[in-house]
């Protein structure tokens, strides 16, 4: 039996705790969410038109990927002006209207701040190129090595591939841990610090509820800029590195926290890929950031033992600093959840480049991937803390692996000379309605192209096709999001239950969550009532493979 579902939409804190300790946040990749003006690119008009959809879905907040003016060398993560809105997305006034309309619907707004680097077209870098006095000090310029100075200052590699240094015609080198069009800022410079604190205030004053901090583990570098040495492939998230996760970064966030504390109820969420949850917890000390993505969760294979280990470690480390855990199954940088689960599962945490390399080696079974992704959603939403949903995850979209090479835009694709196909496949515009592209994403004609083309077989996955369908992905998310605040507050701990091999089972606040990652159906405990199952029909005390269920004792029913 499924309980009645009613959406809770209010900015009032339902449970007397800070909203961000339990929130479900929906990630809007604005370029691909909804196109209002018919140029094939998502925008604010489109986003505003979909606010009722987000309210019906039942999310507490949205996080919007960078919406600032940008030459789009890295889909907006190359910011030219942090105090305005990209003209192809809309105007600052429209952004303000969006914030107000979201708040009216009970949806909070989190922006994406990109402090590690600017666009090469930012006024600061343009001043540095002109070699205005002091302008280069805001970035990381160094002389080259070798007799002619024509070798990079050190051996650091760009996260997108190739050297992390580029040379100006005049001979100087500058650091870019990402694309050459994304020069790294010098966070030892007081003006850089002051500028970003001011940018935070600019948007807080406009009512923004928080910021996702892009590469929060960047910013501070080992001042000696030493060589990093030989790195094993795929070790970028596990080994210490002089460019990443340096202790000096924490002072920056103490300053930011002080800025946020001058406002009510504002929140930071860190994107910090660090070598372990003990390192992650350092970002979450009480005078630093509020939350940080738990990426081990999205790196975990579909195996109960791996997932349990990740959950235990994440909860234990977050507890040491009194922070909520922040569960994330996918985002705009990693292959979509459905696809990750649609191939044979390794026995280790995965790196995204490793995962993309497997596309050529094994056919995906999307039906299986979808079944597992539904089960994973109920797991994610039963855990204590906050949860992020990446747009399209609620529709069960798969990664588009077969984008033609000529449409690819991710700098990863270019900087690895095609060796890594990059992240475009999870950034394809969302299908809203109709039976052919652009599936209601855009008012353009079917023959015209959205900024990345959509697959021809997405008709069954549109929001319209799924709305009101009992067995659809969308309905599952709506039900789970409506039930979540009724079933749990925040403090109920996870208590593991004995479970057969391949099965995760825990109880939280009287409600049990069972997840079967194994190869055989299992028997569920007797006397419990099904609150919600990841597939319809889990009623007869049996949990099939690749499904999950929430169970309550009958007297727990309200
Ligand atoms: C983060 C973003 C990613 C971007 C990179 C550089 O990892 O999520 O999309 O390319 O930072 O800003
Ligand atoms: Ca548009």
UniProtKB/TrEMBL annotation:
The keyword Hydrolase applies. InterPro entries: GH, GH13_cat_dom, O16G_dom_2. Residues 27-427 form the Glycosyl hydrolase family 13 catalytic domain. It comes from the Bacteria. Keywords: Hydrolase. The keyword Hydrolase applies. One of its GO terms (molecular function) is hydrolase activity. Belongs to the glycosyl hydrolase 13 family. This is Glycoside hydrolase family 13 protein.
